[in-house]
User: Fold this.
Amino acid sequence: MDIKEEQRKAQELIKQQGLRVLVCAGTGCVANGSLGVIERFKELGADVSVLTDYDKMTIVPTGCHGFCEQGVLVIIPDKHVTYVKVRYKDVDEIYNTHIRNGQPVERLLYTDPKTGEHIHKNEEINFYAKQTRTALANCGHINAECIDEAIAVRGYEALYNVLKENNPDAVIETIEKSGLRGRGGGGFPTGRKWRFTAANRGGKSYIVCNGDEGDPGAFMDRSVMEGDPHKLLEGMAIAAFAIGADEGYIYVRAEYPLAIKRLRKAIKDAEERNFLGKNIMGSDFSLDIHIKEGAGAFVCGEETALIASIEGERGMPRPKPPFPANKGLFGRPTLINNVETLANVPVIILNGAEWFAKMGTETSKGTKTFALTGEVNNTGLIEVPMGTTLREIIFDIGGGIRGGKKFKAVQIGGPSGGCLTEEHLDLPMDYDSLIKAGAMVGSGGLVVMAENTCMVEVARFFMNFTKNESCGKCVPCREGTKNMLKILEKIVAGKGELSDLDLLEELAHTVKDGSLCGLGKTAPNPVLSTLKYFRDEYIAHIVDKKCPAGVCTAMKTIVIDETKCKGCTKCARTCPVGAIEGTVKQPHHINQDKCIKCEACLNNCPFKAITHK
Amino acid sequence: MAINTKINTSKLDEILCRYEYKKSNLIAILQAVQEEYRYLPEDALIYIGTKVEGLSPATVFGVATFYAQFSLEPKGKFEIKVCDGTACHVRGSMPVLNAIRNKLGIKEGQLTTDNGLFSLETVSCLGACGLAPVVVINGKVHPQMTSDAISIVLDTILKEEE
Assistant:
């Protein structure tokens, strides 16, 4: 078999598709109705006689483009156009006006929020213009369920080259030289991990892909699995070849049904082409890949807990050493890498270690994906070189804060990470600079918070999360997170004391020092970093009994502005506890003893007369 | 709390057979059982624990209670999952959750409505953060929810059920 020949055939197939209309079919766009959009396009495209420049039109359902906020996204590469927020009812207009008559549909183009201009090309939209896509390069541009589309964009070429050269040590050396570090959070040098595992070559060993993307607010692994599953399989195959494994598992969280479906299809297709299975591409190398569905446990993202879960047990971490490289899955040497890490492997092999190492900073090479969410204008998935500043990410790519609010902080790295503030906006982000600032890259979740976010409440939120997800094995984590949560709940309820802050810090250090795995070791981070940067907010809650952001219910008083109230009685009727009193056409008032602060009145007042005090 | 669902052992055998009576497939077995019954009946757990080599009912129970996906009480015909991941939380998932509770009369800590029609849970992240806050009902993702929007969604379901 010659991969170049396969590529040529695949590219020919794509040419035969005629006019390609790419419609995003990632989880986000499906929620916005992309399946209906695809159906309608297909119905219209059935009559090919009306197409002037093409003899055929092919609707390509793709993976995630990352710009979920603007979904459903429709891209017609040959017409150099990207349509945003497309709904079922818009399809006929795109088809008739643009595809048949060459006139772009202006109203469905992306509008630059700063200039108000309509933008035609994908790469000119600010959100995309500042990105460098390598791991995500194909996501959104190919049909994830069609192996030929992957082959056409050089899929499996790296594996072919590696097998042809047949030098596993050279592969490890390339990965080492590239400077790639684990993208799941730890940032451990990938090449070194491979070398440790390869030291045990000879017997049975395993390759495991960690797709248990549990960090709330991160969805890059989902996008890769859904949008470019073959790249992940290829990365796994190269890793397996390098370390001498012949069996692999992809552990995917059960919350990602679409990713599981596409991976299953991809594995089947790859086996049919002999890109997986026995004697891959005619070589001596064989690899079987299985999928293991998770069942909802955050701690399973930790590698030893993940191994326990694949073995069918409670997903509880095991002490290290022995490291998985020596004694992992079913007691055999095991290499565990995260989805994004593995997706970088084929690109590094194809373009060389030097190419990869040119991107990024001194200690962190390449690009990193971030899931940009929260109070930012453009939410979505992005990929930028390591060392990009927060300002570029939030204000250029993200388009600034929603509703013109003031930036307050960004929570990075999920429940294990920390908060960064205004003073960090120009900090080049990489593994080491973030650790220094008291946060971590983590899996790359970036949740932007504005002036209306209460940092104490955020700390409580994360502590509640880790308390729920603590597996219970280590007492300091199990009991410590519970008690830290209790204190935080006390503070947001307006019953905190100043001594609670010292106790919080003391507990935080105990939990950090006394836990076996990453979950416990990092669980106190959100508390420590908010205490560091937003101590005044804690003090406002404790001393002044006020929530500066106006979030914490216990400290809110809801009042009716008598000058605005028309006495329409709507609020009194809405109130679930009968706390609003007054006569018709007279200003009403709220009985604070009865009020449960549910805000039902506030949201329903037609005159906006009800406010927080 | 013991809810007695008649256990069809031939169905369980079929599931066990599909997963080769293997201990390492326990999670997949439990997922298949839950799909069948919409929860994990106690008798089924005991049956699996005695049939699969290397497992005991206690181990099976341990695994079933460890993972959030598994439920030992029946879920509703409509499974509502409110995402309370960070992105959804920041954009107001709690008011949406409260609106659902009020509308369906589900108290905090209660899983399923008395008529068995709805069950309500929060989940930590569905990976649809760009569309926050989201609510998933029987696998369908409802994006950018508000208290009013979810109310309309529920009304539609209620009307169809009448």
